[in-house]
Amino acid sequence: MAIFVSPEEKLKQDKYISAVLSLVGGQGKKAFVYTLGCQQNEADSEKIMGLLLQMGYEKTDDEKEADILIVNTCAIREHAEKRALSIIGRFKHYKVARPDIVIGVCGCMTAQEHRANQLKHSYHYVDFTLGTGALHLLAELVLNALSKGKRRFLLDEETPKIAEGLLPVRESSFRAWVSIMYGCNNFCTYCIVPYVRGRERSRKMQDILDEIRELAKKGYREITLLGQNVNSYGKDLEDKPTIADLLNEIAKIEGDFIIHLMTSHPKDASREMIEAITKDKRTKSHFHLPLQSGSDAVLKRMNRHYDTQRYLDIIKELKSKNPDIVLTTDIIVGFPTETEEDFQKTLDIIKEVEFDTIYSFIYSPRKGTPAYSMEQISEDVKHERYERFCQVQNEIANKLNQKMQGKIYRVLVDGKSKGNEKMYTSRTEGNKIVHFECDTDHTGQFVNVKITRADTFNLFGEIIN
């Protein structure tokens, strides 16, 4: 059951915010947040920066001039943690030069006790750590570092709390992340997330709807609903709302915006959810559904709780309701014990479904997960299979993109491309990248573009008035 920060606790933290504000407010103190990892980490960093601004800091994009430095870490792979430690390491000379600088570390990496201890004992210039479920305690830790000079290293509670009312400083004025739930209950054998982000915790529907209404009023054009498994939304809430219920309520909100879901899990993809997605023009253009493997034997070892037939049934239903839907997925190549036959089955499903985009990964052993102890495949085999996989998928992606030539699509303009003042980058409502030239800056707006050229990864077009 989701546990929410109480009004009393929020009032207490507000007092800490005011106390920090009295120390640093009006002095031009600057804050820098370095973000690693997924969209959920990006959303968390926006909340962290929002809290820091409430405390009287000013945002800076230059770490060298910051008076408080925070690294928001990722733990999905060992490499991500090593990168985080490297970044934290380079902050040491800032502390040496200016001992009054505050340095904090948060995110998934710090939810692991051994990493929190490592930061405590080997990185003596780090003032504090806090886990993903304790962002609302940030002001308390900052005040402690400023006024007492004491270091604190917090681990998340067994059941982390949900804190509402944290006002994010959004990186974009037209694209927004909205977390609808936190944590994960699935325990896929390759994944560390349940161990570092805790069990599933859903936000109350009304709080989510209020946030989306406010974004719509401000003119946001794309809103991504975030969760490790958005399909299981609401199971831990008292009134048991579903993701379909949430989507149906969002459909009632006025505004010209697109909704994306990130990420869905096939085992919880209900007919009601598919119906809700495909009947609303704001959600029907794109759906991301991780497959991970086309082999039932591998899916079982991954602890995914569905088989390939179940997956294909979902895809069939999605396509029957919207033949033009853009489908994307995740694939892991070279999972432990994967045979050549297993790999061929993955290629077979890729050819059958014809995904527009696949976010593919070569399996990387992750300490702390069951798959780490399974029989590993040689790096040479993994890379050889990955090359074959990419060849197959690139041919499919190129074929699907070629079919888009000559057609007109509504796109959301991201901004200017690098190296060409007149070239702009945009995305279709199905999340495909489109480049076009224009003399007028339409960043953050919807425009119509006719596709004139296509390759494997990009579409090129001309704006249609």
Could you give a short description of this structure?
The chain is 36% helix and 22% strand. With 465 residues, it is an alpha/beta fold.
Structural key phrases:
alpha/beta; 22% strand; OB fold (Dihydrolipoamide Acetyltransferase, E2P); 36% helix; five-stranded mixed barrel; pyruvate-formate lyase- activating enzyme; 465 residues; Rossmann fold; six-stranded parallel sheet; 3 domains; 21 strands
Structure description:
The protein is of the alpha/beta class. The protein has 14 helices and 21 strands. Helix 9 packs parallel to helix 10, helix 10 packs parallel to helix 12 and helix 13 packs parallel to helix 14. The model has no long low-confidence stretch (mean pLDDT 94). Strands 3-2-4-5-6-7 form a six-stranded parallel beta sheet, sandwiched between helices. It has a five-stranded mixed β-barrel with strand order 17-18-19-21-20. It has three domains: 159 residues, Methylthiotransferase, N-terminal domain (Rossmann fold, 3-Layer(aba) Sandwich), CATH 3.40.50.12160; 239 residues, Alpha-Beta Horseshoe (pyruvate-formate lyase- activating enzyme), CATH 3.80.30.20; 57 residues, Nucleic acid-binding proteins (OB fold (Dihydrolipoamide Acetyltransferase, E2P)), CATH 2.40.50. A hairpin with a 6-residue loop joins strand 17 and strand 18. It is globular and about 65 Å long.
